[in-house]
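Sample pair:
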Amino acid sequence: YLSPEELEEVQRFIMRVIREKAGIQEDIALYPVSAKLGLEAKCSHDATLLSQSRFDYLEDHIIHFMSQKKEKILQASIPRKSFDILTDLEMQLRLSLKAYTMPQEELQQKLMLFDETIQQAEQQKTFSGDILAGERKRLLELLEEQSENLRQKGRHYLESVANSCLYEKNTIDENAITQALALAIPGFFEHELDQMSRFFDTHVITITRKAIDIAIQKKQTYASEVAGQVTHLEQMIAALEEHKKHLASFIRDSETI
């Protein structure tokens, strides 16, 4: 094991390399691991040694980070779907307000039609919610699968780095192995996390676009039907206004006579 002073020196060395070579100046969280304990735990399948090596903590942190990020992406698409549903409901409310100017019998018919359109909007809301819930479940399952792949790949890679040091030195030099792992970990996980992020971004966009296309198609069909009803309403209102004008003119002429 490294003493606290040696561990602090290694961490300072890693931070200096990151700042000088990568140009990153902000504070970065480092996760010290023990290559020796990790190798022993791997060979002996000892969970206690693996925990002491801190490799399991590093893996859990990476998986938690990826789960959090992709969950936020998925949650961001839900308000957009809700906005489309509320837009449809607003259109139905405007239609109902216009219906109050109609005769009682036709008003009753339009109220029945309004109830049907509300039911359609609720069905669309349920349908959209089912789509999002199903896709969310599939995304979480896919994320778990990708995380497991990353865990296995990371283990193999770090083992290969440690083994390379063992073959070169022909002895167990913990300091050399630790420094080699410290230099290898940032580059490896940065590349892998970037690839995973790109994969999920593309996957989420595809899912969201599919749901939006379905909603747009339903909205266009519904808008076409509503447009015909609105046109009919406008014609009836215009006819009523014209009738009122003729009636007012007739009243004025009658009073003159």
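The radius of gyration is 34 Å.
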